[in-house]
Amino acid sequence: MLELAIGNLFLSKISNDDLDFLCRIECDQALWHYEESVETDVHAVQKKYMQRIANEKKTQNHDFIICLQQDKRIEQIGLAQIWSYIDFRGSWEVGFAVLPEYSGKGYGRKAAKLLLKWGFEGLNTHKVVGMCNANNTPSSSLMEHIGMTREGIFRKELMWHGQWTDQYYYSILEEEYVLKYNTHV
What we know:
Layout: E1 5-6, E2 9-13, H1 19-26, H2 42-54, E3 61-70, E4 73-86, E5 91-98, H3 107-122, E6 127-133, H4 137-145, E7 149-160, E8 163-173, H5 174-181
Parallel strand pairs: 5-6
Antiparallel strand pairs: 1-2, 2-3, 3-4, 4-5, 6-8, 7-8
Helix pairs in contact: 1-2
């Protein structure tokens, strides 16, 4: 398995021990402010992740807890995910969230870089994509910062706060990843 760490931040595959944290983060409507909807049923979230954990070898989803090691303590600070977007094309989509008290400190950017590493070096993908609400400036800035290119705008794609809003579509190709991160795939 690839080492998925940058400094004191690392990604840890989810396990049943993480279910309370996953429910906390997935059901937090403030954290998912820019999404069309948020699952608020804790039992539904638990069931979803228990199925993913049980079928880890068969699934096209890879879920990680973003962890921060400070001294000898490990703190769970967010969620990072990559899943098959278009299987036969070798495209994968990324998603991430960092708890508000840890945002703005570069942890999301580091976690997103590690997702790219997992995608290109662990999954041997051809392309990684990401999408966000056009109003979600932090997410679009993060994707641009890690080398993703805004390829398009899906006009009035999302029903957000009672009105249609645009969604940005980003991607990075394997050869762009290799050049940006000076690595071999």
